Structure formats: C-alpha cells, structure tokens
Amino acid sequence: MLTDSLKAHWPVRRLPDVAHLDAGSSGWGFFLCTRKELRTGRSGAPYLHVVLQDRSGTVAGRLLEDVDRFKDEFEVGEFVRAQGRADRHNQRVEMVLESIRRINPDQDRAEGFREADYVRAAPRPADEMWQELQRLTAGIENQDVRRIVEAIVTKYEDRLRVWPAAVTVHHDYRSGLLEHLLQVADVCARLADVYGADKSYLVAGAILHDIGKVEELDYELATSYSLEGNLLGHITIGVRMVNEAAAGLGDVPRDVVARLAHLILSHHGTRDHGSPVEPMTAEAFILSAADDLDATLHQVRRHVSEGSGDSRFTAYHSRLGRVLLKPSGR
Amino acid sequence: MLTDSLKAHWPVRRLPDVAHLDAGSSGWGFFLCTRKELRTGRSGAPYLHVVLQDRSGTVAGRLLEDVDRFKDEFEVGEFVRAQGRADRHNQRVEMVLESIRRINPDQDRAEGFREADYVRAAPRPADEMWQELQRLTAGIENQDVRRIVEAIVTKYEDRLRVWPAAVTVHHDYRSGLLEHLLQVADVCARLADVYGADKSYLVAGAILHDIGKVEELDYELATSYSLEGNLLGHITIGVRMVNEAAAGLGDVPRDVVARLAHLILSHHGTRDHGSPVEPMTAEAFILSAADDLDATLHQVRRHVSEGSGDSRFTAYHSRLGRVLLKPSGR
Amino acid sequence: MLTDSLKAHWPVRRLPDVAHLDAGSSGWGFFLCTRKELRTGRSGAPYLHVVLQDRSGTVAGRLLEDVDRFKDEFEVGEFVRAQGRADRHNQRVEMVLESIRRINPDQDRAEGFREADYVRAAPRPADEMWQELQRLTAGIENQDVRRIVEAIVTKYEDRLRVWPAAVTVHHDYRSGLLEHLLQVADVCARLADVYGADKSYLVAGAILHDIGKVEELDYELATSYSLEGNLLGHITIGVRMVNEAAAGLGDVPRDVVARLAHLILSHHGTRDHGSPVEPMTAEAFILSAADDLDATLHQVRRHVSEGSGDSRFTAYHSRLGRVLLKPSGR
Amino acid sequence: MLTDSLKAHWPVRRLPDVAHLDAGSSGWGFFLCTRKELRTGRSGAPYLHVVLQDRSGTVAGRLLEDVDRFKDEFEVGEFVRAQGRADRHNQRVEMVLESIRRINPDQDRAEGFREADYVRAAPRPADEMWQELQRLTAGIENQDVRRIVEAIVTKYEDRLRVWPAAVTVHHDYRSGLLEHLLQVADVCARLADVYGADKSYLVAGAILHDIGKVEELDYELATSYSLEGNLLGHITIGVRMVNEAAAGLGDVPRDVVARLAHLILSHHGTRDHGSPVEPMTAEAFILSAADDLDATLHQVRRHVSEGSGDSRFTAYHSRLGRVLLKPSGR
Amino acid sequence: MLTDSLKAHWPVRRLPDVAHLDAGSSGWGFFLCTRKELRTGRSGAPYLHVVLQDRSGTVAGRLLEDVDRFKDEFEVGEFVRAQGRADRHNQRVEMVLESIRRINPDQDRAEGFREADYVRAAPRPADEMWQELQRLTAGIENQDVRRIVEAIVTKYEDRLRVWPAAVTVHHDYRSGLLEHLLQVADVCARLADVYGADKSYLVAGAILHDIGKVEELDYELATSYSLEGNLLGHITIGVRMVNEAAAGLGDVPRDVVARLAHLILSHHGTRDHGSPVEPMTAEAFILSAADDLDATLHQVRRHVSEGSGDSRFTAYHSRLGRVLLKPSGR
Amino acid sequence: MLTDSLKAHWPVRRLPDVAHLDAGSSGWGFFLCTRKELRTGRSGAPYLHVVLQDRSGTVAGRLLEDVDRFKDEFEVGEFVRAQGRADRHNQRVEMVLESIRRINPDQDRAEGFREADYVRAAPRPADEMWQELQRLTAGIENQDVRRIVEAIVTKYEDRLRVWPAAVTVHHDYRSGLLEHLLQVADVCARLADVYGADKSYLVAGAILHDIGKVEELDYELATSYSLEGNLLGHITIGVRMVNEAAAGLGDVPRDVVARLAHLILSHHGTRDHGSPVEPMTAEAFILSAADDLDATLHQVRRHVSEGSGDSRFTAYHSRLGRVLLKPSGR
C-alpha cells in the first residue's frame, strides 16, 4: 500500500522523458499506452499493469489503488496523462502510478501535449528520408532495375514511409524500415565504389531487401506479425513483389528479375539465418554484409545509449552474448 | 598397352547390362554416352574417357588405342555401340574399350537396340504414374486447393511426365520427380488418416512441394541446374508457380494461397536445410517428414541394391555417413 | 489479502473443468493434488502453493488465508475438494483458494466424485488399447520376433497398461506409453506397406522402442526418473529386456536379437539425440521417423488445443521454437 | 507484514552457518554483506535486499520493516550482525531479516566474530599453498622455463595468494586461483609420468595457464572483470606476462617463450572455447585436459555438496545440463 | 615397365623394416600380406596390389611384371618373402615389387624368419600386460565390483590378450585393447588419488569401458566390425556383458550394476560422441577424460613418430585437424 | 612415352602466360620453379614433377623423358626456361615438358626475361601502396594511436612491402598483405563516416589487424608458417607488437593499448574463427565485417576470373561451398 507519507513526497512537477526516468523521479507526464492489463497481485488484490511510451523509450507501470476508478479512464492505444513515481525493480525502472486518464486534447495541448512526442520513431523526419529514397531510386542506372524498384516503391509508399523494420531487435519503430534501407543503401553504394561492383543492383537490392516487411508486419501503433508474415516470411513476400512488378511492366528480362530476387533471397547470408539460397555474386555478398552490420550496429548503439551507471561496460546484451565497451568521452 | 594376347581373350558376345558388369565381363553392348572427354594419361598419351549408361546404371570407360580413329565416331548424348572388357579399379568396375561408334538405327535395331533401354528412368511407366496423379488431383476435396493444383499440373504436364527429381542423390532419372511426388502423396494420405490432418492440403502439398524443380533443373538426357535454379532454388520457384496459378484463377482466398505456399516453403523441415520458414501446421510437419523419409529410403535401397559381395553390410555411404545392413534373404 | 467484498462475489456453484477455467471462474470442484508446498510470500507471510489436476489439465493455486487450518487437511497425492476463484497472472490462469480438504468418499461421491475424473490419462480406454496391442503382437509373422515381443509385453503388462510415455513433453499421462506405441505401430505398419519393409520387425520395433520407459520412469500418480532411468536411460534398459527375453526363450537366433536391439538403439535417429548407433536398415529409418513425427504432432496438437484467444496463431512454443497456425474451422 | 505472533516465535539463538540454514532456522549471526539494494515490493513498499555470506556459502535476505532505520546501519562490503528467520522460496532458502547492523569489533569479537569466518576461501590455507607453489617452481628442471615462472610468480605474489579463479562457476573465492593451479599442476605432473611428457613445460604451463586472471579480474571482497579483462581476456594477458618476463631476463631462447605461450594460448582446448590456437604438443593436450577436468569436478563436487533432500540425484545443474548422482555413503 | 638397367641397380641385400623404408631402399624382406588385389593400371595392363606389414608398420606394393606367375604364389593372410625397390609417390613410400612368394618355414627360418616380427602389436608383451591386469583386478576393494570384473575378464581372457582396440585411429594392433585399458586404468588410479574418487569403480570402469570391443570387432590378422559390432556398438555390448556377469553371480546389488553400466555408457563423454547418457558421477567424468586423453595422445605420438624430414612440424593430421610440433631433442 | 610424331607437332614459339595456357598450347617460356620432385609413375618409371609460376598463375608440369639429364639443370626457387605442351587432365591444365633448365641471365634477358614477370604479386606497385600507407598513418588524428601505428609500420617496413597475406585462400602473393590492409582501411574509413565511429581506431585497426602475419609467415619466394606462426598465430603476435611498440614509446595510456589490442584480437569476429575475444565496440564490429568481406570478395573475384567455358556459373568453390554467377558482360 502506498502510505500517505510517501504520497506527500510527490510533487506535481512534470516527469522527465522516459529515457531519463530513474528511481525517485516523480510527477506527471503524457504517454502513449501500448499495453493495459488487469492483473492479480501475489496478495490477491487486483492492479493495473500498463506500458507507457514516449519517443525516448518505454516504461512499465503499476496502478495499485483505486483500480476500479481508473481502469475505465483509458484504453490501450490511447494517449494518456499519468502521474506517479519511478522505482528501480530488479535493475529496471518501473512506475508506481497514482492516477491515469486519457488525453483531453483541448485542455492538454495547452500543457504541451503533441501526439508525435509519444510515438517512437526514426531520428530523421520521414519526409526527408522519403525524398532521399526517391533520389536514390531515380539514380539507378540500369533501366530495367530502376523501373522495378520504382514500381514497388511507388506501390508501397504509404507503408514504406511509416513502417518499422522489426517487432523488436533493431529499427523497431515508426519509419525504422526506411531508416534502415537508406543506411544499408548508403553503405552499399560506398562499397560498390571500393569493389567495382554493379551499383544498380546493389542499390536496388539495398532498397528492396526488406521490402516484404511491409506485409510481413502489421503496424498501427504496435507491431505484430501478419498471417502471411508468419507463414511465408518477408524474404518470400519480397520476391513475390518483384515478380508482380516485373509482370506489371511486362518486358523485363528474366535474368534481371532473377538477379534482383537472388539479392533478396540471399541477404541473410546463410541458410541457417533463413536465406534459402546463399550469395552467389559480389553484390549479394556485399548486401548481406551491409545488412548484417547495420542491424548489429543499431543494437550496439541502442544498448550503449540505454545503459547507465559509471561502469566502463554496459550490462550483458543477451542477444549479442557479451557486454559492450562504452565509447569514452560520450 | 593392350597386348594381342589379351585381345584374343575377348569373345564377341553381348555384354550383360551395366548393373551386372564385373571384372572379366567382355563383349559388346548398346549404351547412351553421357560424357566424352579427350584426356592425357600419366604416360603422356591421349585417351578417350567416356561414361556409358543403360537403364540399370552407369559405367566409366577408357579407350586407349586408335583414339584418333574413334574420337569422331560419336558424340556425347548419342546412343553408341561399344566393345571391350570390364575391370575392377579401386573397387569400381570400369570398361577398357576396344571400339565405340554411334548407333546405326536400321542395322542395330535388328540386334535389339531400343532407345528406352539406355535411358535411366523410374521403374513405373510414366503414363501410369501420370494417370495416378490425375486421379489424386481430382480427388482433392477443397475446391480452391484443387483448382490451384490442377492449374499447375496441367501447365507443366510435359515436364512433370519426364523430369528427374534431382541431379544426383535420389530419383535422379527420367520421371523420377513424378515417382517421388506420388510416393510422398501416398505416405501423406495415409498419415492424414492416422492423424486426422487436412487431406486436401496434404495431398496438394505432396504434389507441389518439389514442383519448382521443373524450372530449377534443365533436363535433356543429362540433368543440370538452370540459371534460376541456382539463383532462386526450387522452393522459391514453386511458390511463384502457386502465386501465378492463383492470380490466373482470380478468386482464390489469400489464406489458401498462403497455406499452400507455406507447405512448399517449409518442406525441408529446417532453415538449415534450406526452408526459409519452418513447419507451423500439422500438415507441414507431416509433409516434411514424408519427403525426408522418401528421399532417405530411396538412397538406402539404391545403395543396398548396388552393393555386391558376401558381406552382411554395404560399403560406407558417405552421404548417410554409415554402412547399411543388407536385408537378409534378398 | 482477500477482502470481504470480493468473497461476497464468490457463488458456491461448481467450477468448470480445469481446461475451461478463466479469470472470473469461481466455485468449488474436485481435484487430484499433485504438489503441495508451504511458501513465504514477498510480504513475509506464509501461504500454501498447490497444483490441482483433473483429466482436462492442471492449475496452480494459492491459499493465502487460514493457512494453519488448511495445511493439514490434505496431502499431496490425495484427491481434494477445493473452493476459490480463478485469476489470470502473467497470462496464466491460477486459482486463489478459499478452502481445501481431502475427499470424504462417502459424502463426496454423492456430489459426483469419481477418481478417474481427476487423473490425466490417454483419451482411449486402457483395456481397448491393451486388446489392440494383443492383436498387433499376435499378428507378427516372424515367429522369433513375435515370441520376444510376447514375452516382454506379458512380463510388463501391469506397467504397460498404465505407464506414461514421459515426465513432460508428450504423452505424459496415464497409459500415454501404450497410446504412443500403438500410434507409432499404426504408422509403421502403413509405411511398411508403402516401402515393402519387413513388417514383423517394424511392428515389433514400434511396440518395443520405448519399452525401457517402464523402468526408466517411476509412476504412481506423479512421474519421475528412477535411479536406473537416470544412469542408463530407456534405450539401454529396453535392450536389456530384449536380451533377457531372448535368454529366457533360449533358442532365438542372435541375428534376430541384434536386429531388434538395433531398432531400439537407433530409434532416436542420431547420436546427438541419444541413439548410440544410427539407423542401418530401412526398418530403423522408418521407425525413427514415425516416432519423431508422433511425438512432434502430439506437442503440436496439445499446444494448439491449449491456446485461447482470437489470434490465428498460438503463443510461442519454446520447445519447437515457433508459433503454430491454428487449424481454421476448429 | 510480519505479524507479532510470528516474531514471538524467533528465539534469539545463534543461526547455523549459511550452508545449514533451512526453512525454520531463526536467530542471529555474523556475515559479510556482499550486496545491498533498496527495492520496491510488489505492494509498493520499499524493502532492503541484501546478500549475506560466510565461508560456507551465501544467502539472500529481505528486511521489510523499519527500512529507514536500518538502511544506514551498514554498507556493502562490511561485516554485519543480522537477525531473522529463514524461509524456503521457490526451493531456495532466503532470510527474512528483523535487524541488521555493521560489526562493532570490540563488542562482537567477544561473541566469537572473526573476519576470516565470513570470507569464502579455498579450503587449504594460502600460506601452505604458496609454499607448495614455491617448491613446485623450484623443482622445474629446465632452467629457462623455471626462470620465467619464477619471475612471474614473484612479481604477482600478492595477487596470486588471494585471487579467485573466476567470478562464478568454479574456484570463485579467495585463493581459488592458487588452489586451482596447484591441483592442475598435481594432475599434470602425474600424467607427465604416465606419458613421458616434458614435466618442466607441463608444470610451468599448469602454473601459468590462468595467470592472466590476476589482471583479468578485479578482486576486493567481490570479484568483477577489469577493463583489460573484458577487452583482452586472461589468455592474452597471460601471454603478455610471459613476454615481459622473458624480455626482463634478456636471454631466454625464443623457442622456450613460444612453447610456454602456446601452452597458455591453447589451454581451453578448442577455438570454440576461446583458445586462438589449439594444442600442438603432447604437453598442451595434457594441460588442456587437466584444466577442463579440474574445473568440471569442482562444479560437480560443489553441486553435490550443496544439494539437500533424500533424493539419490541432485537438482538439475544448468551449466552441465544434467542431474548428478550423489555419492553413496556421504 | 621396369627397365633392365633399373633392375641391375637392385642389390639383393635385406630391406630395412617398414618404418625405415625410403625412396631408394631395395632388397628383400619377410612380411605379413594383409591385402592382395589384381588391378588394372591406367595403361590397361593388370598388376598386383598388395599391402605388406611388419611390426613397425605397413607399406603398399605393386608388382607390375610376371603378374601371372606370382599371383598364385601367396594369399592374403600369409607370411611372404618379397623383393623390390621403394619409391616415394605423392609423399608416401611405396614398393615396386620384383617377386613375392609365401614363406617356406624350414628354409626361411634359417634366414631369420619369425612370425611375431611381422604382426603389429603393442610394445609391451601380452603376458606382462595380462599379469598387470590380474593384479589390478585383484586390487579392487569393493567386492561386488571386483567379482563382476573378474567374471568378465576371465570369460574373455583369450580375446583380451590379443584384441586390438580399434580398426584404425589408435591402438589398432595385436593386444592394443589390453595396452589401452591398462594405460587408462593407470591414469584413473592416479586421478582417483588426486580427487578422492571411488577407486574401485574407477579402476573397474577403466578395465571394462571398451570390453565390448572383443565382440564389436572380428580379429584374426586383420580387424573388422562384426554384425553385432555394427548394429549395437561396443558400448551396448559391454553393458550386456556386465548384466550377464551380474546375473551369473546372482547376488550383486542393482545399484552396483547400474553404476558400472553407467561408467561404460557414458565413457564417450557426450551423446554426440555416441554415449547415450552423459557422466553423472565424478568417476564417470574422470574415466571419460582419461579415455579421451589416452586415445588422443596415442594418435599424437604415432603421428610424430611417423613423420620424417627436417621440419619442426609434422604433416597435417586430418583427424586432429592440425599440424603437430615435434618434440625437440627427440 | 612421348612419340616422335607428337614432338614434331611442337613448334618452338613462345608459350602464352600461365593464365592463358590451354590444351594444345605448346612452345617455351620463362617461369619461377616453386616445386620440384622426383616421382615414380604408375608404370614404375621415374619422372620430374614441377610447379611453374608466372605473374598470372601457376601450372603443374611433368618431364617424362631424359629425367636424369634435366634433373640437375635447375633447383626449386630458381627461374627456369621450360619447353613443352599443355594438356587438360581431370579438367586442369598441366604441362608435359620436353626440357627445362635454369635461366642464363645474360643470354635470356635478350629474349625478354625479367624476374618480376614470374613472381605473383599484388596488382598495384608496392611503392605506390607503401606511400598510401604512409599517408593513411599520418592522417590518424589520435596522437597515441598514430604513434603506435607509426612505430610498428616503420619497424616492419621491409616485410610489409612484400609480404603475402596468406599461404593460400586470399592475397597469397607478393605485397598481398599491403594490398589487403589498404583495402580494409579504405572500407573502414568509409564506414566510420556512415556510422560516426572513431576513425583513428578504425584505420589503425585496419592497418594492424593482420600485422602479426609478417612473423606468422615465412616468405622468400614461397610462403609457409613459421614456428611462432604455428604455435601462436598472427593475432597473438600482432598484440605482442602493439605491446612492444607501446613499451618503446613509454607514455601511451593503457586504455589506448587495450583498445588497439582488442581490435586485433576480435577481428575474426567469433571465437569459432579464432578470435579469443569477440567485438565489444562499434569499431571492432566494423573492422571484423570489413576484413571478412574483403577476404571473401577476393576469393569470389579470383574464382570468377579463373573460370573458363561458356557456362553462366563457375565451377563449385569448395571453400565457399557453392558455385558463383559470372558477372554478365565480362
């Protein structure tokens, strides 16, 4: 139970953003609620478990008192105003909530509420990234290749602008897919220069390698796998999009289609990682290396940026299977 | 050099079929020539290396004398009449050839030459297998599933009737693909009964799981990988065929297409074996087990049947990584 | 603490069976108690942790109040009458118990208590399965093989009728071993027809492959590993049983014993999965595939049947390493 | 909350040592506090989480009441007097603490407090082990080898006397490194006799194989990885120490240095276990086997000794991936 | 063809033993012929391929001329007198033979022929090793354990005295099994002292761990796998021998039998290496490590001793996957 | 035997370079002889086996006649003039030699002999590459890092200019190490821009990652492993060079040394590939990816360039485990 003496310590100031919450932070803030469950505590009493999010990250919260009153004041997927205190539990920061309710736009905008602040998204604006993608596509020299890329990018523009690249792991936020493919394309273009590889195929491969994710994943404010995503996977869906684009254009040589499809199919590098065929061209080797490196570095940087404390090393990263050295001077 | 005394020992009787050649066999026979190379022996002298085939198997041969005369008397891919003696070299039977020339149909038919005897093929007649496939297809209860299978089977009938299932390993001969898919369908239908699985999808999956092989492989009298076969693989090609058939029919629910594609994609059982997604339905688990068992047993039986000698065990099978027990009483 | 207002909401109706419990279910029921521990809650107060079971499944329960009174009212392994409310905790249903006591047979039978309803068991009656096993055994053509199987099956009848096939994973309930071996024998007999394999050995191998489990596992109402089970494993125990049966019969050819033992030894398919030798006969390959498929499909069906909610896919199955597609229309 | 009636049950007798604590033990004891955290319970109330240690083991404890009063009465790394009751939670024994404060040496020595009783350490006295190491080193026949070992052992004497061999897993306590290297040297010397291997190199390798750990690990009363420990690892650090010692001596043949470095580099046996080169001499094979066996047996014995209960087998050992048979008669 | 001028260079002196043959060695010697095949050379001419052996090793030989005359002068498995010249072919020494015939005992003994010189055997006399085994067995303290070992060792004495430990790899010669088990027992006894393990079980395990090899392998002058060897493997055969010995004694506690069987079953260390169960006792871990080390060091020493040339390193050892450093000064 | 009629066909024109030899090429040429062995043919006659090399590649040759005369006319490691004819044997081109003798510089220079033409070397001139390395080093911003790189590069200049990067696999020719490190540095610098990584460390890591190879390998005109190369490996040697350079400079912070050493240690990416520690910084991940990609692409390009024939795909590349698609239009 939250004692009155504790409550008395909660000033009603504004909470810092989620990334800066720490044990002792208290006050109120605006968030997107991405999970809401009525649970029973070990003591048998019900409480509300929620996950709250802003652009900087996510935090779990528990509302222990007046559950009946607050449980109908908001739904999952809504923006909320919540008040409470942050604690550290098993080395993770959690919120103990005093109150929570959905946003009242008129009133809350006055206090600075702006939807975009509570949706995790790529650091660069989607419009800017979209224009870069347009330029990249237009710059593909091989006409057959460019026409296929243009057809696909145009068809899926709405999704490409906002889709995440994954449910978790890396680039798992609004426009993360676009951010990832531009980064991979940038790396591929530079490596094409070093190794004299075919830049048309490499840039096209970079743009299209994960394109199947716009159908593999369902994304509204949360991300999940679609039926076809689970049963087929983004690699197979991406190849189907290339086949359909080529069929729509009508006159693309089969070799061009096969080489593009090969880049998509082999971009995980090995069968073990889900590529049914493995790289057979210099371009495929480069694309696969660039994709793997970009995904890995995204995890490295996030893990480093999320760490806290004075240690020179981060906490153990279970997916990478090691601790990481924090960059000095950052 | 072949001494005259040796030649004198060669009677001009008919050779046994390839499977029954052994050291000491001598005489003449008809064959399909599937390889022909001019090589240089360790002594510096040129010789002809050939591979000869009849329905029962293949044998390598060397023609050491009169190379200049015989080397233009036939080409690879032609039926030939060859004369010589069999020897055992490093435990393998090889032919030392005295003469070789292409078939003269008019004259050689009189001696019993018949093309079909020299092409390795499935044990059952293609027509009989084709009719069984027709019956199987017609018996698929789920209408959407049946229409897709019919469309594909009809479109690729010419190839399906004669295609091998592989370059090597198993069912690597004329109509081997048809033989394999019927066997897998038989197993799947029986297992569907035991486990109450969806027989429409299971039989369709059995028929279509390797359908991409009709484009993955090029087959005339020899078998090799096509450009798309190498770059995409039969799994991805097979899924494309399902997508095209569904597009052609126009009104097939996406779920049906996804479930059929899932059966094709997952039929190798694990990513490690080249399936980009792994079985997620009872039907996919059954199909994958049936396919694997059929391919394994084909290798087991061939290896057992090809072995010779009195030992209770076969020679080491390098792909399976073990020796096999010969069935007693066979 | 359970507040009085909450208690007031608990009607004293009969609880649904375990498989149908969900958050909000409340009332009383009969169960088998398979675990009972006195634990200390985070708050420092002791509580009773129990696991309750009926034929449809198992559920954990906590009794938080009057612990001293109830803790001597029943023991693990006894049938009990318990009353309380179901909650959902971390996505699992749990019971918060109000009271629990051992069955009073005279009185409780009047309310419908019947032991068999609270022991998880194979779906088919043991007697029916036992008769099927008798028929199967009698139908083995090879006399030497049949006599060994008969000797073993007769000797271990008592255990074979009731033993589970595993502590967890698959067929882990009363008569689960009998259910599993009959299913595997059914599959093996069908595959023997398809592949012309030796049905005597295949059916015998199916019956005997897991026979060592009757000594590997101790089973009363709970299942655990015996000393020999841990130190030797069921494969080695099963081979010992074949050796003993052959010694008892006196005149069985060594080859027959060796071939039967080979089927048991190799039925896990690879050394990696615990088979000290790997399949060397068509029969051994078939048995190993049938056993693996049966165990896998048992897990698939259980996982699908236990899932709830509207999603087309189940929750992640950690042993299989994937989600599963729920069959449509079921 | 701890009720008064419960408190009344706590006699103020002396607690048994940590290894003998079980549910129901209560009283007071001296400990080393190796962890101290202010946490928030599920109910929202703060509590102190501590880890207490004596020579026999470690136990977690929670202080739930009067947190404000006790939280400043001691710090992590200090010796403390604590009073409370042991419970079993999820099969592990934990303490619920009533009070805790730092040692008052004058007063507490009277009750038998002695620092050494609360620091986990190797079973043999460090001095005795150090003298054994001196004898071992002096007994190395090959002069070049002996001089390198002497130089290193002398330089790092302070650390060698007290360092643990690991953060966890095996020999993870005061002087554990010394204990481990003497044991490995003992085994190596005996195996050198059996196999006629070069005892100078083998004993030197045994002494030096883990020497890098004195810089890989930081150790005060707790153990952790140093910056160089993480970035380089003890194998590379150990090779550097050999290089530096050889450079200091000036006239050691390069071959000797290379063979010693090879023993250190290859002592994990395979690249997979972190050895950049694998054993290439009989001595390197023996050292690697001896090191592995010693580390494994240390885990086996600890796990067996820590187990309780009547079962013939221990609980599952997750690192070894199995249960262990308890020695009979112990 | 062997020219006359070459023949003239062959003096008729005695050849060195096989281990010392090198390009240029010529003369005659006595051997055991362990392989004899009539092959056809690349030039079409038949030649005799033989493998000749003395205690120091084996060498392949080719007889190119007068094949008809010599081919009936000896059979495989006979001792022979052969004359010829050694050459180096693909870095291996081979013999080009001039003549070969079976031994004429009366006449050839005069020239020093003695059967034992041409059979590869363990370096120590079998009688001496047998007596050591007797002493070892008699010294086992645990009576039940000793009686089982005595029963088995007595029953299989004839084979134990002469059996090889393997077809190839290590200890693959007369009495190699006895040599190996004594060595492993020696190591185990020493490690039992270091680790306070149960010496009765350890020594018994060392003696019995490979006992199944006396039935797994057929051995006359050559070694091959028996039917049961292939189908069951020596581990399972060894356990059967323990079971039979215990049944014969009648009153051995089941625990003793199970612990001995566990040592045999787990001595390959991991399932991956063919142990159906993995070590669960300190004794099993020690036995498995000792067996592995002994087998590895046998390969290391043989490879080092067989190498020639000035290099500090041996040729690549394909089974160990590396080159080995030659001991200096040897 | 080489018949006179064949010899008559050999015109005495100049042979093409090795890369352009094909069956039928005949004439004379200059080469470096990198292997020379006296072997015995299957027929029993001795012949000379040689390997001849020019900048474009290597070719094996056999001299079958007048062996006694020619065998003393040249030694391995000398430049030679050889005459003969090329044949294709088992799909590889080999030379049948008529004559071979060492170069007579005075006379042969007149015919165009120039040493550099017969040594395989990197495509760019060593001087040009060396200057690029100097510029790269000078451009490292972090002073401590730059001083270490300068010290090492300066110390090993002689070797760095000419050393190969490997015995086989990739960059296995004169100045191949320099070519490889510049390429990797180029890639790393570009990726540092994309990912905002620390360019000083990345470029230094690229220059130093394989520096240990100048002592791991012995290189004159052939390449082989040194004693330390085998026992320690280039990774450990490279770290020692960094330690020595830092010790020589005296005032480099330990952190800088540790971070540089970490880049070298982790550059194989995983322990499995020989890195005792795995990447823990963004720079280490990038370096490891760049190194792996450069080595792979070198193999890809060589394999593609060495292939011949009309096929769209290369022959199977056993190290990469696949065929490769030839770039179209090349």
Could you name the key traits of this structure?
homohexamer, 330 residues, alpha+beta, 12 helices, elongated
Commentary on this structure:
The structure is a homohexamer of 330-residue chains. Helices cover 42% and strands 18% of the residues of chain A. The first copy, chain A, has twelve helices and seven strands. In chain A, strands 1-2-3-5-4 form a five-stranded mixed β-barrel. Chain A starts with a helix and ends in a 24-residue tail after the last helix. Mean pLDDT of chain A is 89; it is low at 1-11. Chains in contact: A-B, A-C, A-D, A-F, B-C, B-E, B-F, C-D, C-E, D-E, D-F, E-F. Chains E and F meet through strand 4 of E and strand 1 and helix 10 of F.
Give the helices and strands, then pairings.
The structure is a homohexamer of 330-residue chains.
Chain A: H1 4-8, E1 26-40, E2 46-54, E3 57-63, H2 67-70, E4 79-89, E5 92-102, H3 105-109, H4 126-138, H5 143-155, H6 157-162, H7 176-195, H8 199-208, H9 213-216, E6 217-219, E7 223-225, H10 227-249, H11 254-265, H12 282-306
Parallel strand pairs in A: 3-5
Antiparallel strand pairs in A: 1-2, 1-4, 2-3, 4-5, 6-7
Query: How many β-strand stretches of chain A?
Result: 7
Average of pLDDT of chain A: 89
What is the chain-wise order of helices and strands of chain A?
A: HEEEHEEHHHHHHHEEHHH
The structural class of chain A is alpha+beta
Largest interface: chains, residues each = A-F, 32 and 32 residues
Roughly how many Å apart are the termini of chain A? 41 Å
Quaternary structure annotation = homohexamer
Q: In percent terms, what proportion of residues of chain A is strand?
A: 15-25%
The description of the largest β-sheet of chain A is: 5 strands, mixed, barrel
What coarse outline of chain A follows from CA principal-axis ratios?
elongated
Task: Point out poorly predicted stretches of chain A.
Answer: 1-11
Structural Rg of chain A: 23 Å
Helical proportion of chain A, percent range: 40-55%
Strand order of the largest sheet of chain A: 1-2-3-5-4
H/I helix tally of chain A: 12
